[in-house]
Design goal:
With 234 residues, the chain is mainly alpha-helical. It is built from eleven helices and three strands, in the order ααβαααααββαααα. The chain is globular. The termini are far apart. The model has no long low-confidence stretch (mean pLDDT 87).
Length: 234
């Protein structure tokens, strides 16, 4: 009986080992494919669809997105995006200090790269396991994809309203135009709502978006001549 149990345990271990190797190779292959191919659907988009929020999405290439939209999301979400390696350590440290003092008002410090890693490969929510996977995938996409592809993916898969995913769907829903024709102000309005797009709406214009987008416009002006940013925009 003990010998049979031991044999079964060895078979289970071999199976788990093979499964781990398969999943490791598969996920690396998937990350590599997504350097050129857009994801068929993300977990967040799928949940949006099955829960009744809908799914408006239309992937567009990097060249079909207004430079204003690219600058706006960087100005709003991650001004060090051109320089960092996927993580803004100073912001993370500040967020941790804030969260220790204010546990009921959690503040995040996710970069654009981290948000892409979470939204493309993982699920929503807060846990140490999810954060560990997010860190891993952030590291991988920074190496494999590079900044332009990460920003392109961010602008294509981010939630920008209830059931609205990506800058093209947002541009057409809010301003009846393609993403390539978004103005500075329109881009800043969309970027202003990214923290909570279901609550901070563009149409109708919420108080938060109305007060935040002028600040984003000023930041866009401050950032637009930055050499690192210009390399990403080209």
């Amino acid at each position: 009986m003990a010998i049979k149990t031991k044999g079964l345990g060895l078979r289970v271990l071999r199976f788990l080992k093979r499964l781990f190797i398969f999943l490791f190779i598969f996920h690396l292959f998937y990350v590599l494919i997504l350097k050129w191919v857009n994801p068929p659907v993300t977990i967040t988009q799928f949940v949006s669809w099955i829960t009744g929020d809908g799914l408006k999405r239309d992937y567009v290439s990097y060249s079909e997105i207004s430079s204003y939209a690219k600058i706006a999301v960087i100005a709003s979400e991650d001004q060090l995006f051109p320089e960092h390696n996927g993580f803004d350590w100073k912001s993370i440290e500040k967020a941790m200090e804030h969260n220790e003092k204010n546990p009921k008002k959690i503040r995040g410090a996710s970069t654009i790269s981290q948000q892409v890693a979470k939204n493309v490969f993982l699920w929503q929510g807060r846990s140490w396991l999810r954060k560990a996977f997010e860190t891993y995938f952030t590291f991988i996409i920074e190496i494999v994809w590079g900044k332009k592809r990460i920003l392109e993916m961010y602008l294509n898969i981010s939630e920008m309203g209830t059931g609205i995913y990506g800058i093209e769907a947002a541009a057409r829903s809010y301003f009846k135009k393609p993403a390539s024709r978004l103005t500075r102000s329109e881009s800043a309005m969309i970027a202003a709502g990214l923290r909570n797009p279901k609550k901070y709406t563009v149409k109708p214009l919420s108080k938060f978006v109305a007060s935040r987008y002028p600040w984003i416009l000023k930041q866009m002006t401050n950032l637009q001549d930055d050499d690192g940013l210009q390399r990403i925009l080209q």
